[in-house]
Specification:
This is DUF4235 domain-containing protein. Keywords: Membrane, Transmembrane, Transmembrane helix. There is one protein chain. The protein contains two helices and no strands. The chain is mostly helical and 88 residues long. The N and C termini lie close together (9 Å).
Length: 88
Amino acid sequence: MNRAQVLYKPVGLATGMLGGMLATAVFKRTWKAVTGEGDAPDAMDKDRSWGEILATAAVQGAIFSTVKAAVDRGGAVTVRRLTGTWPD
């Protein structure tokens, strides 16, 4: 295991947790801005249609995937800047 990999492990864990919190905040703000509702429906919400549930899940997944990719990439770039090596 090289120095970049060792350094990236704690950075990856920390940024992953922060990314999850950021993605949750972005999704909640997006949901409220688009629908005017405070809470998004979940799969067990009996008063919502299949379409609403699946659309909500798709939007949430897109936001979480985008934030995760940005956070992961940013962490890897930071490690490369600090060590000169890309973490694998």
